[in-house]
Design goal:
single chain, 1 helix, four-stranded antiparallel beta sheet, mainly beta
């Protein structure tokens, strides 16, 4: 779309259109460069999505992608013995693999403005890396029991403020004010699959899931504004 989403056109007929798209990342330094994962591998475009290529450089199938620290990060969603996190410093042409693994696959990946990486693991909580993905620590005090984290978003206007959304087995929306060290519940018993922070007014936050779309103006009071939302 070139008009803010009012009209749309199909930019490619590649195989991933039928396979599904699980993650999309735009290079902030070169926004014409777009990367997407389809659950089988990594695809990239160097011309605003007009043409697409398959990348064979990534050792594992990418599920979630994120840009941070001028690097592209990728994680698989599943590994019986844990998963590695992969980092590319040259636009996806070569990849660096972490030495230590995350215990389970990541269903959410976020790079905060300060360079910190966050990963949401299925039933294994929130994990944080302070050294570009080389090592990770669990940071989910307050979430308590296993949750299926589907989204993590860092507030660009306030360092340390995070939101995390979960689905099954314990749905809810969590928020942190200290970089993930501790969390509190913002919405209970509510399936959250996607979170978005307003780019101009970061106090406005949207959280969507199978039960609808919720919004807040202050991070404290949430309103149900629409029904059935999967991605925002």
């Amino acid at each position: 779309s070139g008009d803010g989403g009012l009209t749309w056109q199909l930019v490619s007929g590649s195989h991933w259109l039928s396979a599904g798209i699980y993650s999309l990342a735009i290079d902030p330094q070169t926004p014409q460069h777009i990367f997407l994962s389809d659950g089988y591998g990594l695809n990239y475009s160097l011309d605003d999505g007009q043409t697409w290529n398959d990348s064979d450089a990534l050792p594992q199938n990418a599920y979630k992608l994120a840009f941070g620290n001028n690097s592209l990060y990728a994680v698989p969603y599943w590994g019986s013995q844990g998963i590695y996190v992969y980092r590319s410093d040259d636009g996806g042409f070569t990849w660096w693999q972490t030495i230590k693994k995350l215990p389970k696959g990541a269903w959410a990946l976020q790079a905060a403005p300060d360079g910190t990486l966050y990963a949401g693991l299925w039933a294994y909580g929130v994990w944080r890396s302070l050294n570009y993905g080389a090592s990770w620590q669990e940071v989910d005090r307050g979430i308590s029991s296993p949750v299926g984290l589907q989204a993590i978003v860092a507030d660009p206007g306030q360092p340390g403020r995070l939101y995390a959304g979960s689905d099954y087995p314990r749905p809810g929306l969590f928020q942190s004010q200290d970089g993930g060290l501790s969390w509190s519940l913002a919405l209970t018993d509510t399936s959250i699959l996607a979170i978005a922070i307003h780019p101009i007014t970061p106090t406005i936050v949207y959280a969507g899931g199978a039960q609808g779309l919720y919004s807040t103006m202050d991070g404290i009071h949430w309103d149900d504004v629409w029904g059935d939302t999967y991605k925002i």
